[in-house]
Design goal:
Diaminopimelate Epimerase, Chain A, domain 1, 2 domains, about 260 residues, about 15% helix, single chain, alpha+beta, twelve-stranded mixed sheet
């Protein structure tokens, strides 16, 4: 029997998400991969890079549950985290400051202006040289490759090939192609696993690229690195002590797009 599912849609620099409010209990009771993938489908569903559930949490302001567009549970999504914070604020569940739980643990976040959310990411210690780039985990696994020109890269084709390389087995990786430096700012294109295509932005990918760029300077201290994705401008603030990246904040837009209902 079909039921009507209320939802909202948000986007962060073009990285878009369906969000379902589970604050008062389950609304989307069919969490099969097929159902979630259909809701995220851009031709036969609502259309999104992922789907999130906003749930109660006994120890934090709320809990974020994230599924990729392929319908399967995913690792951390940075832009999704910023968007669900904006949604919780819109509902009046939080003020300008919050701490919530995601799949990789607790995150702090705050809204500094309308539709702008800053999200603290988990510390990172390991940045590993691999192939012609670097591999690191910023809540999700990422390969970062510096390239001369983004317009010379077929992001889908090259990203798909790199995503399944044996070096990243068994889970594969997200793939980021980057130009620029920490001082001049970065421009990025990302192929996301789970979406299995290029997305207009990827928060954990933007974070990964900024960390690699900061390390490449050979300097320690505080950095603020602007990063331009195809869907808009973001920034990453961080501290690097020569061994560990900490105080990592992913900053950018988190914009309400529309609300609606769909039969499931």
């Amino acid at each position: 029997m079909k039921t009507t599912l209320p939802f909202v849609k948000y986007q962060g620099a073009g990285n878009d998400f369906v969000i379902v409010n589970h604050w008062s209990g389950p609304v989307l009771t069919d969490l099969s991969a097929a159902t979630i993938a259909r809701l995220c489908d851009r031709r036969f569903g609502i259309g999104a890079d992922g789907l999130m559930l906003l749930e109660r949490d006994p120890d934090y302001d709320f809990r974020m549950v994230y599924y990729n567009a392929d319908g399967y549970p995913s690792t951390m999504c940075g832009n999704g985290g910023r968007c669900i914070v904006a949604f919780a604020h819109r509902l009046g569940l939080i003020g300008a400051q919050t701490t919530f739980r995601a799949v990789d643990g607790p995150h702090r976040a705050h809204l500094t202006q309308p539709a702008w959310v800053e999200l603290e990411m988990t510390p990172v210690t390991a940045v590993t040289p691999v192939l012609d780039g670097h591999f690191l985990d910023t809540g999700s696994p990422h390969y970062v490759a510096q390239v001369a020109r983004l317009d010379a890269i077929d992001v889908d084709e090259q990203g798909r090939t790199l995503r399944q390389r044996p070096e990243f087995a068994p889970g594969g990786t997200n793939v980021n192609f980057v130009t620029g430096t920490a001082d001049s700012g970065l421009t990025i294109a990302t192929y996301e696993r789970g979406v299995e295509a290029e997305t207009l932005a990827c928060g954990t990918g933007v974070t990964a690229a900024a960390l690699v760029a900061a390390q490449a300077t050979g300097r320690q201290g505080d950095f603020t690195i602007p990063v331009t994705a195809k869907g808009g401008a973001l920034a990453v603030r961080l501290h690097y002590d020569g061994t560990q990246f900490s105080q990592i904040w992913l900053c950018g837009p988190a914009v309400f797009v529309f609300a609606g209902e769909v039969e499931v």
